[in-house]
C-alpha cells in the first residue's frame, strides 16, 4: 500500500483469544486504524486491551505495516463486518479486514477460509495460460487456416485466463475494504461471462464450419447475452448474498448450445463431441447448484471452514469443465483437419 501523505495508524496488540468469556465480541484486533484515505476500522476503545498507536508517515509508516502484516489472526464469522459476511455456515477462519494490498497478497500463503478459493483458480489460471501459449506456438502445419483458428482458440484462452485471474484476484483482495471487494466481485462475475463467451467461439467455429450464417447468428446471440450479463454484474445489489441463486444461475450457461436440430444434431453427438459438452454442462450445473445451496457446509456448519466448502468445489468444477471444453474443441479441430477443411454433404453439421 502506498504511504501517501501523513496518516495515523493504530495497532491493536490484543487478539480475540484474550477476550474475557461472556464479553460482547469486540472488533477483532489486528486491523489498522487509518485516518486519511481509509475509513476508521477500529475505534481505540474497541480493543480488548490497550492499543499502541503510531503516528507516522513515510518510512516510519512502512515499519508499522511490517509489524502489523505478520500479526493478523483469523477471526470468527460473528465479528466480521457486514460487507465480509457472505456464508454463515463457515464459522471460523476468516481474515479480518486488511486495508493493505500487500497484506492481502501475503495472505495467499496463509490458511483461512479463502485459501482454497484463491489456489484453485490461481493454479487453473497457470494451467490455461500454459495451454494457451502451447496452442499459439503449435506449428501452422497442424491447422487448415492457422491464423483464423489461432484467433478462435485465442478467444477461448483469453476468456479462461481472464475469468480465472479475476477470480483469484477477487478472493485475494476480498478482505481489503468494502469498495475494493465490490469492484473485484464485479470483475469476478464479468469474468464468468467472458469465459462462457470465449468458450462458444471455437465450438461454434468448428461445429458450424460449413454453415457460416447460423454460425454468425449463434455467435451474435452469445455476444449479446454475454455483454448483458456483464452489464447486470455492474449492478451493486447483484453481489449481495440475497442474489446468490441468481449469480449461480448465471454461472451455468443456459444459452442455446444445441446445433441445428434433426439430422445435424445426431451427427453432432458423435462427431461433434456433444458428449464432452454435455459433461461440461453437467459440471457447471453441479458446481453452480452446490454453490447456490451451500452444500456441504450447510449440513455441517463449521466443518468445512477451510477445505471442501461449496465455493471451492464450484471453483474446481469450473476449471475441470473448461478443460473438458478445450478437449472437446481440440477433437473438433482434428476432425476438421482430417477432412482437410472440405465441406461435403457428409461433414455438414
Ligand atoms: Zn469464486
Word description of this protein:
Keywords: Membrane, Metal-binding, Transmembrane, Transmembrane helix, Zinc. Belongs to the ADIPOR family. Residues 251-263 have a biased composition (Low complexity). It is elongated and about 65 Å long. The protein is built from 10 helices and 3 strands. By secondary structure, it is mainly alpha-helical. It has helices spanning 59-69, 101-106, 115-137, 146-173, 178-207, 212-233, 244-251, 263-270, 274-293, 310-338; strands at residues 6-12, 32-35, 51-57. A 3-stranded antiparallel sheet has the order 2-1-3, with helices on one face. Helix 3 (115-137) runs antiparallel to helix 4, helix 4 packs antiparallel against helix 5 and helix 9 (274-293) runs antiparallel to helix 10 (310-338).
In short:
It is a multi-pass membrane protein. With 349 residues, the chain is mainly α.
H/E series:
EEEHHHHHHHHHH
**Low-confidence residue ranges:** 1-67, 251-266
Give the oligomeric state of the chains in this entry, treating copies of one chain as homo and distinct chains as hetero: single chain
Strand order of the largest sheet: 2-1-3
Keywords:
metal-binding, 3 strands, metal ion binding, binds zinc ion, AdipoR/HlyIII-related, 3-stranded antiparallel sheet, mainly alpha, 5% strand, transmembrane, 349 residues, signaling receptor activity, 10 helices
Amino acid at each position: 500500500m502506498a504511504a501517501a501523505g501523513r496518516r495515523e495508524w493504530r495497532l491493536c496488540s490484543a487478539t480475540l483469544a484474550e477476550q474475557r468469556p461472556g464479553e460482547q465480541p469486540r472488533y477483532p484486533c489486528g486491523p489498522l486504524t487509518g485516518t486519511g484515505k481509509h475509513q476508521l476500522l477500529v475505534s481505540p476503545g474497541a480493543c480488548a486491551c490497550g492499543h499502541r498507536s503510531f503516528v507516522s508517515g513515510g518510512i516510519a509508516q512502512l515499519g508499522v505495516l511490517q509489524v502489523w502484516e505478520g500479526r493478523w489472526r483469523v477471526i470468527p464469522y460473528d465479528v466480521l463486518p457486514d460487507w465480509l459476511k457472505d456464508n454463515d455456515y463457515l464459522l471460523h477462519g476468516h481474515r479480518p479486514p486488511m486495508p493493505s494490498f500487500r497484506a492481502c497478497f501475503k495472505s495467499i500463503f496463509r490458511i483461512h477460509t479463502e485459501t482454497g478459493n484463491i489456489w484453485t483458480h490461481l493454479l487453473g489460471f497457470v494451467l490455461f495460460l500454459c495451454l494457451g501459449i502451447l496452442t499459439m506456438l503449435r506449428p501452422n502445419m497442424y491447422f487448415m487456416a492457422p491464423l483464423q483458428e489461432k484467433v478462435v482458440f485465442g478467444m477461448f484462452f483469453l476468456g479462461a485466463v481472464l475469468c480465472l485471474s479475476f477470480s483469484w484476484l477477487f478472493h485475494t483482495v476480498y478482505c481489503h475494504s468494502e469498495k475494493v471487494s465490490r469492484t473485484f466481485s464485479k470483475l469476478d462475475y464479468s469474468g464468468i461471462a467472458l469465459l462462457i463467451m470465449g468458450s462458444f467461439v471455437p465450438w461454434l467455429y468448428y461445429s458450424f464450419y460449413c454453415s457460416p450464417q447460423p454460425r454468425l447468428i449463434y455467435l451474435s446471440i452469445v455476444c449479446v447475452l454475454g455483454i448483458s450479463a456483464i452489464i447486470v454484474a455492474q449492478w451493486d445489489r447483484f453481489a449481495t448474498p440475497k442474489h446468490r441463486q441468481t449469480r449461480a444461475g448465471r454461472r451455468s450457461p443456459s444459452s442455446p448450445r444445441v446445433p441445428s436440430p434433426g439430422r445435424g444434431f445426431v451427427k453432432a453427438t458423435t462427431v461433434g463431441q456433444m458428449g464432452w459438452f454435455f459433461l461440461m454442462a453437467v459440471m457447471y450445473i453441479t458446481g453452480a447448484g452446490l454453490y447456490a445451496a451451500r452444500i456441504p457446509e450447510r449440513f455441517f456448519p463449521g466443518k468445512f471452514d477451510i477445505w471442501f466448502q461449496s465455493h471451492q468445489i464450484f471453483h474446481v468444477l469450473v476449471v475441470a469443465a473448461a478443460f473438458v471444453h478445450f478437449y472437446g474443441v481440440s477433437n473438433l479441430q482434428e476432425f476438421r483437419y482430417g477432412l482437410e477443411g472440405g465441406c461435403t454433404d457428409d461433414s455438414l453439421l
